[in-house]
Amino acid sequence: MGHSKRTFSVVRSNSFRTASTRKETLDTYMETISSKDAVRIVDYGVRYILPFLPNGSAKMPIYYCIKYGIQFLQDSQKHGIEQATQNLTKTVVKEQIVPSAVDYMWDSIENNVVESGVNKALVNFSEQAFKETMNDIMVNGVDAI
Amino acid sequence: MIDEKKAQDNINKFMDKHGPKGFLILYFSKYLFKLLKFQLKSKFIDIEPENDPAYIFYTKNGKITKISDVDKYEDELYEACKQKAKIIVGELGKDSNFLPLFKGDFSKIRDPKLEKKFEASLHQIFQSFQEGKHED
Question: Which terminus of chain A, N or C, has less C-beta within 10 A?
Fold first, then answer.
């Protein structure tokens, strides 16, 4: 049998149903990442990785990050950071409001997400992206984007 | 360490200029970047070391790249992710279901059905990349 000994364990998708398509896709992937062409690599990523992210465990955390992130930013504008943080969580240490605000927010998001028993590895991308986004906005303001 | 007054000022300025849409673009840029970088550095099972993506990430023509070159490469990857993030946010913005998110209308954001609608819409947008839409 022409079954390849190499196992492609990184991108799990329907594209890898057969050994031949798996090898073909693996070869394309290796060629793409070896090119070091950022646009080409990201094109590949959104085409072959994003579509296979599961609905619940990957997309639900994204939803909560967005929902709580926007809520916090708008509340902060209207009522200040302290009140905005209190709106998301009951336990706030006033003296540590700025360095801890992002962690407080993440705790609220995680409470919503964990109840559903989602895949922790996929939550991590949302968590890292969320914390970096909020930190960038608080530290860099207009220039964060 | 940044004080509360400065952080507040930065949030106000960010929201005045970029609004919720700016937050969404920034968040999706970082999400895509984290996801892709993880994939680019993930180890394959039973594969030659020189074909290991993590090895490829840090080398060029068999030589270890300088930190400044790695930083430049990461900046390029991030910029490419930002372009995709703008497409995702643009597509989400076309869906009237998510106007409350873009406008910060929290009475509607509390709608429990919105979560499922969001998942379905995001799935559709991600699928559209696979179908080759949004390509130059």
Answer: N
Contact indicator for A64, A109 with CB cutoff of 8 Å: yes
Least confident of A40-44, A52-56, A95-99, B63-67: A95-99
Q: Tens digit of pLDDT for each residue in B47-62?
A: 777 778 888 888 888 8
Q: What amino acid occupies position A76?
A: S
Nearest to B135 by CA among B80, B95, B98: B80
Partner residues linked to B64 by β-bridges:
B59
Q: Which of B2, B25, B56 sits opposite A139 (nearest CB)?
A: B2
| Two tokens, residue A96 | 């540590």
**pLDDT (tens digit, 9 = 90+) per residue, B71-87?**
999 999 999 999 999 99
Tokens of A17: 């149903």
Q: Which residues are within 8 A (CB) of A109 and not within 5 positions of it... i.e. 6 or more apart?
A: A61, A64, A65, A68, A126, A127, A130
Beta carbons of B126 and A53 less than 8 Å apart: yes
Predicted ipTM of the assembly: 0.88
CA distance A55 to A57: 6
Instruction: Say which residues have a Cβ less than 8 Å from residue A136's Cβ, sequence separation at least 6.
Output: A144, B26
Among candidates B55, B56, B54, B46, which has minimal Cα distance to A7? B46
Contacts of A135 in chain B (CB under 8 A): none
Q: For residue A82, which of A65, A104, A61 has the smallest C-alpha distance?
A: A104
Cα separations (Å) of B130 from A116, A139, B134? Answer: 28, 36, 10
Give me the pLDDT at residue B99, please: 84
A96, B3 in Cβ contact below 8 A?
A: no
> Tokens at residue B61, please?
């023509």
